[in-house]
Amino acid sequence: MTTKKVFNIIGLTILTALIIIIISFVRSCNSGFGYQAGSGLGSLVDIGGEKYKHSYLQKYADTFFLIYPQYKVPKSDPTTNMTSGYEFLNLTKFYFDTKPREIYCVQWEGTSFISVRFAYNYETGQEVLENTREKVYVDKMQKQRMTKRLRNEILDKIDSIISKSQDKDSAIYVPSF
User: Higher confidence at residue 47 or residue 63?
Assistant: First the structure.
């Protein structure tokens, strides 16, 4: 065998190996085995069009809990394991003590929306979340109910608190175009 044939065989072998490695990498990424950007955690409910800046809504959540302590999460918080590892989202948890008893984990900033990233339903004893990687989705009617509940029981009350605060003028959201 000539040297040229040996180099051709080695080159073809290396090229075949590279193609196999690239195909394997692409498949592993698509299956979730390899790296994928983002947490894979979807958002259950996104609410936009707020009167006040999200940073002020988050700031006044503490005042909200002073006025409405019934929305504080009980000491035996079943969402502790759910939120572990998501501290970077700066979530605020709200507890609803009327049926369906739930906890909403709300992210104020980081997106252009206020997002309920995940929830917990006491009646079913289950996490309520969406994960696009695993094709886990929540029913549209459930999302509409959650949006209405968050708006009526939490956001409207925080808006009222801000409207009576010294920050009321600086907290107003002015969209930039």
Answer: 63
